[in-house]
Amino acid sequence: MEALLPIITQVIAGAVGGNVASGALKQVAINAVARTIAGAIGGIGGGMLLSMVGGEAAMTGLIADGIGGLIGGGILSTIVGAVAARAR
Fold it and tell me: Where do transmembrane segments lie in this chain (predicted)?
């Protein structure tokens, strides 16, 4: 369970970040389920990227995972929404 906690944190934070970013940008090209999935995937990627760069040195593990998940989820969801809008 100890190994899954950072991944769960990243997935949840990414899903929240993806929905918030898409809502703030008023993207209607993708629905809420697609935003949540893209945000969750981006959250995992963002959390892993932040831990590779060394973001955990200044912050505790779960906080760094949450911040990386929020940022990564928001970025990937925004990219997916822009691509989907461009395709329509």
Answer: 6-25, 32-54, 66-85
Alpha-carbon gap, residue 84 to 5, rounded angstroms = 32
Q: What are the sequence ranges of the domains in the chain? A: 12-85
pLDDT digits (tens, 9 = 90+) for 34-50: 889 999 999 999 888 88
Nearest to 83 by CA among 34, 33, 50: 34
End-to-end Cα distance, the chain: 42
CA-closest candidate to residue 65, choices 88, 42, 48, 40: 48
- Torsion over CA: 82, 21, 70, 7 (sign): negative
Whole-prediction pTM value? 0.85
The H or E element containing residue 51 is helix 32-53
Q: Are 38 and 69 in contact (CB under 8 A)?
A: no
